[in-house]
Amino acid sequence: MAVSLSRRALFSAAGAGLTLGLMPLSIVAVAAPGQGATINNWLHVGTDGAVTLYSNAQEMGQGGFSGVAQLLANELCVEWDRVTVKTAPLIDAMGMADGKSHWTGGSSSIRSQWDKLRRAGAAAREMLVMAGARMLGVPVAECRAIAGHVEHRSSGRRIAYGAVADMAARLPVPADPALLSRADWTLVGQGVMRKDIAAKVDGSAVYATDVKLPGLLSATLMQCPVFGGKLVSVDPAPAMAIPGVRHVVVIKDTAIPIPGSDRPMRLVDAVAVVADHWWAARQGLLALSPVWDAHGKDSLDTDGMIGTITAKLSDPGSIRKGEKEDEAAIRAGHTAAMAGVARVLSWDYVVPALAHAQMEPMSATIDLSPGKGRAWTGSQFPTSVRRILAGLSGMEEDKVEVETLLSGGGFGRRYLNDYVGYAAFLSKQVAAPVKLIYSREEDLCQGRYRPATACRITAGVGADGLPVAVHTHTVPASGNVWVSIATGGPTQPDHQPSYYLPSPLTTMAEGGLPVPNGPWRAPGSTQGAFFFECFVDELAQVAGQDPLAYRRRLLASNPRALRVLDAAARAAGWGRTLPPGTGLGIAIWNSFQSIAAQVVQVSVTGTRVRVEKVWCAFDCGTVVNPDSVRAQGEGSILMALSASLAEKVTLEKGAVSSRNFDQYHLIQMDRIPEVEIVLIDSPDAPVGGAGEPMTPPLPPALVNALFAATGKRVRSLPLTDHGFTVS
Questions:
Q1: pLDDT tens for residues 481-492?
Q2: Quick check: pTM over 0.90?
Q3: Domains of the chain: residue spans and CATH
Q4: Which residues have C-beta within 8 Å of that of residue 290, sequence separation ≥ 6?
């Protein structure tokens, strides 16, 4: 699955045939005997007819490799079983949206490469058809591409791509290739098998923990448990007495310079044990008794964290940076709109800190022994991996080799490469390749959490019960979380309610707490959707209106979102008579250029809550692989449901106390509801993401359903904090 090749090695490995870059297609390809044509990013058609795509999307279970391959193969008119996907080398020309960095996140694998991959496939198809026409001795206008062949339409004569690939490689690259019409698509829109599945089933898939090298050592570590604390001392003798332990490494006040940045990567004080194998390293670490200095940071606990952010809801906060230049006008417009309202309504909402809890803990294999600079890891940001190794070793960036492997889940955690920094530091210190694997406890206690966040939403409503002006004010424990509102227009920005509302005001105050934070599946939206969609339900209640009907009024100027909302409600049979203690809740949210609406059905007996079914309508523009999109939706919904029911990062004396899954409670299989996903095709809309947008609507739909069933409003998560148990 994973390769790390130089530009030259890539084409040597590709062999004879047509190798074509993704963009820009106006550049004339450089042909070389036996190597094909090369420009920037590449696809390769071998003389045997096999097709290889070099992709810059990291595969962490979301199906990004197969998705981008479908785009290419569809335009190329080849059979799916002839397509292979490999990891692209880390060169600037093969970067993502910024044109340089290689990263995977933001539900971007398909939407950010939709055009360039299709154009690459189309250009290659035209070159192959031209070459095939010459070999058949017929005009190119009389030929077409079909199933990996060039066919003469009138006679039915065919010639395989492999037979014409070398000739095609010597033709000019079309500057503006014609894309297939939707009617001619054979792969886009089809639920073909993902390319990574077979290796995962037969055990041949390679993860960072699978890497084997001569002289490889294994390591694990313990970072300072208290955020902001320091290591005072540690006696290495107990660990060194464990058979197989080679080194005890102390990491203190370490900053790794990052090329091209004035901000180094800072490693938290830690103790690591390096051994012949991981179990010895783990036993050695458990034998140690490091002395830590909390530096006065050991007073923070869960209640204190929540108390801090809720207290700051009364702070005025600051306006969003992009709106600073218009701040006076925005505030004045909002104030004027509020002056004439019939009623002012305001409620506060709170969500906890969440861990990513991905299946595979943080792991990386690094070789920074003398003269070496190589990494094997499932990072979502491999360009950052390369920069870390270059900064620590002093090597030039282009001399550092990075193999991006499969990962067992990411959800944003693997975008932050602190674990790579530790592995690289250890390898350099012991002058040997090192495989670092976090224990589950270390993974949960040293996460980059979705920050606990409080929000106060205040609205002035008119006589018709609809909002005239809305103010959202958020306070995250650390980092930034905004809940902005779109004011209308043909293209709605990401990560906002689907409603176009007048006179919005968005402010935020900083929590300022030392808890590490980072992106968590649908960053910001999982908090924002809960806050705003709960608020909308409350507005509907005060107005005496059905929650669906109220939302339909708010969506009058957004027909695309209204179609999604109606599809979810229709699938769930909204308005049907339900048994006592059973309720339906609804929510809708826009993120990553996609729209998701969900209806949740719950039944409540006393304090026992059972989530019976979730219906989700989803519009991501054009669906590339419906099976993959449904799988992503099911995963997103269950991850959000788990977070809503019982997940919560807890703190005690400045350290995380939810250290393993007996304390950080994930949903169990017997509590998973039926999930039904309705996919909506919007061919004229921009292509959106699918890996994250179905996460945000679930929590508010769930608590709105709980209100419908019990009459009790829940304005904070998880549900277990309110005395509910889940069955």
A1: 888 776 554 344
A2: yes
A3: 7-202 (3.30.365.10), 208-295+362-437 (3.30.365.10), 305-353+449-726 (3.30.365.10)
A4: 222, 231, 232, 233, 234, 271
